[in-house]
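Hi, here's the filled form for the chain we discussed.

Project: internal
Contact: R.S.
Residues: 226
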Amino acid sequence: MATRERRGKRRRPDLVPPKVERIPPRSGLSRAEVIANQRLRIFEGLAVALVHHGYEDTKITDIVELSGVSRATFYERFESKEACFAAAYEDGVERLAAAVEAAAEGERGWAWCLSVGLATGLDFLAVDPALAHLLLVEALAAARPARLEYERSLVRLAEALRPPAELPGGERVPEETVRLLAGGLASHLSGRVLAGEADSLGEDHDLLLAYLLAPSLAANARVAAG
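And the returned structure, exactly as it came back:
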């Protein structure tokens, strides 16, 4: 009978754990600020633990060790690993979406907003490979509630990728096409992250932009051809 590979053999020696900055006594921070700091550290510790061990094999012990909080503090904030993952996933998606939306604001047209938003999103993921791993790889292995959140995120991504309602001539990019674009984009990024290439995601901007614009360009060509 084959024996299960020990967890230590799956560690990523190339990944440096985050520097833990504990809050000193009498720091002057409010209770709300202390809680926010602890949550952020727990999220960062979870993300790094997931890269080392994967979702199934990550333990609460791993998370508290990497985040610099006590086990008691962890359970004050989250009732389980599953609840912690769901909160970390939601936090990561919201921060990513906020960065993309802020960068893409303006009146310079849909294609420009798509290009700028894509560049911003790729850079956001590239500077935090552990978070990218959590959002794009481990969400597929997480418990059902988190997996459902991942599916909802794909719907949200599809909405962001949707071209203007009507193209010249009245043709519309089909709904199914937009969903396929979102799924294809997520699949490409997850593959790059899983290969340890998250920090170079920005290099894919032009390739991915062409991929995302292709349906609209094809629709415009059909309209022009009559």
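Let me know if anything looks off before we file it.
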